[in-house]
């Protein structure tokens, strides 16, 4: 990772490959341990501790685990919204009612499997009512710029929030090694407000408005 941010910095595609390669070497024990640590750290974040509604997602594969956090938020009375991927890569939303309420859904001709809410769909604009939004990602740099997976779904979410004048806290859950010096930035990219890793929380600014 030492080359990140140096002259000739890698483009997003090659950086994604590098980061995914590291994730794919994690063991089941690694994933369990980091999931519990992430939940504990995330709940130290005032943005989540005081939120009434949190838009989140269910981690899959080697992503930093989110289920422990989702269950704890729900147990505290927080309304947790989860995404459902639409055919145009936009996101609809439904309420998380516990792990038994999740449906395993295959997308992209069966290549990608996600866990989505099985209940009522609330529409893509439901996210604008969230007090905090958990964004998946592969890295965040020291400016708070996020490197996503490249599908564009969360770019749409962020654009929708901006159009609605909504200012939720934007939080990314990552592994410790994924907070890097710099990720490639495009004109439409916006910084997040905080990153949570198993070892702690780092803030980059406060929501405005």
TrEMBL record:
Keywords: ATP-binding, Ligase, Magnesium, Metal-binding, Nucleotide-binding. Its cofactor is Mg(2+). It catalyses: (6S)-5-formyl-5,6,7,8-tetrahydrofolate + ATP = (6R)-5,10-methenyltetrahydrofolate + ADP + phosphate. Its EC number is 6.3.3.2. InterPro entries: FTHF_cligase, FTHF_cligase-like_sf, NagB/RpiA_transferase-like. It is an enzyme of class 6 (ligase). GO terms for molecular function: 5-formyltetrahydrofolate cyclo-ligase activity. NCBIfam families: MTHFS_bact. Belongs to the 5-formyltetrahydrofolate cyclo-ligase family. This is 5-formyltetrahydrofolate cyclo-ligase. It comes from Streptomyces violaceus (Streptomyces venezuelae).
């Amino acid at each position: 990772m030492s080359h990140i941010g140096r002259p000739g910095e890698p483009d997003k595609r090659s950086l994604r490959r590098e980061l995914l390669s590291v994730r794919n070497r994690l063991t089941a024990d690694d994933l369990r341990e980091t999931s519990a640590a992430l939940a504990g750290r995330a709940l130290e974040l005032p943005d989540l501790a005081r939120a009434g509604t949190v838009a989140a997602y269910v981690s899959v594969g080697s992503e930093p685990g989110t289920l422990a956090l989702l269950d704890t938020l729900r147990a505290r009375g927080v309304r947790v919204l989860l995404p459902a991927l639409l055919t145009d890569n936009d996101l609809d939303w439904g309420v998380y009612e516990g792990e038994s309420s999740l449906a395993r859904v295959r997308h992209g001709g069966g290549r990608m499997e996600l866990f989505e809410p099985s209940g009522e769909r609330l529409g893509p604009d439901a996210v604008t009512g969230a007090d905090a939004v958990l964004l998946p990602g592969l890295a965040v740099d020291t400016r708070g710029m996020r490197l996503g997976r490249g599908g564009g779904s969360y770019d749409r979410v962020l654009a929708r929030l901006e159009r609605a004048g909504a200012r939720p806290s934007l939080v990314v859950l990552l592994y410790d090694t994924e907070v890097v010096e710099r990720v490639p930035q495009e004109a439409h990219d916006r910084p997040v407000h905080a990153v949570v890793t198993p070892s702690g929380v780092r803030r980059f600014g406060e929501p405005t408005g």
